[in-house]
Amino acid sequence: MDQFAVKVFVRLRPSVLDPAGEATKSASIKLGAEGIKSLRIGKMIEVKIEGNGEDEVRKKIDLLCDRLFANIVIEDYEYSLEKL
């Protein structure tokens, strides 16, 4: 079996308001970080996973993203994987 390191990035869809991002943007500006036009908050998940090749691992990661890591109604995800 091959082992892979996967980084999954989950973020709200552009059409969904991001209150945490807006609050962080406002606080950043108050701290003197002028010029911020947009700030959105997401999450990054690191997974080490085994599988019989990249295709099998991608299927496993897609399943995890669709059912666990992301709320696919309001969030998008993307990931990168690296064979270890």
From TrEMBL:
Reaction catalysed? N(2)-formyl-N(1)-(5-phospho-beta-D-ribosyl)glycinamide + L-glutamine + ATP + H2O = 2-formamido-N(1)-(5-O-phospho-beta-D-ribosyl)acetamidine + L-glutamate + ADP + phosphate + H(+)
Function of the protein: Part of the phosphoribosylformylglycinamidine synthase complex involved in the purines biosynthetic pathway. Catalyzes the ATP-dependent conversion of formylglycinamide ribonucleotide (FGAR) and glutamine to yield formylglycinamidine ribonucleotide (FGAM) and glutamate. The FGAM synthase complex is composed of three subunits. PurQ produces an ammonia molecule by converting glutamine to glutamate. PurL transfers the ammonia molecule to FGAR to form FGAM in an ATP-dependent manner.
Pathway assigned in UniProt? Purine metabolism; IMP biosynthesis via de novo pathway; 5-amino-1-(5-phospho-D-ribosyl)imidazole from N(2)-formyl-N(1)-(5-phospho-D-ribosyl)glycinamide: step 1/2
Keywords of this entry: ATP-binding, Cytoplasm, Ligase, Nucleotide-binding, Purine biosynthesis
State the name under which the record lists this protein.
Phosphoribosylformylglycinamidine synthase subunit PurS
Q: Which family does it belong to?
A: Belongs to the PurS family.
The record, for InterPro entries, names: PurS (IPR003850), PurS-like_sf (IPR036604)
Record has Ligase as a keyword: yes
Q: How does it assemble?
A: Part of the FGAM synthase complex composed of 1 PurL, 1 PurQ and 2 PurS subunits.
Please give the biological process terms from Gene Ontology that the record holds.
'de novo' IMP biosynthetic process
Q: Which GO terms describe its molecular function?
A: ATP binding; phosphoribosylformylglycinamidine synthase activity
Subcellular localization is given as: Cytoplasm
Q: Which gene encodes it?
A: purS
Entry annotated with the keyword Nucleotide-binding: yes
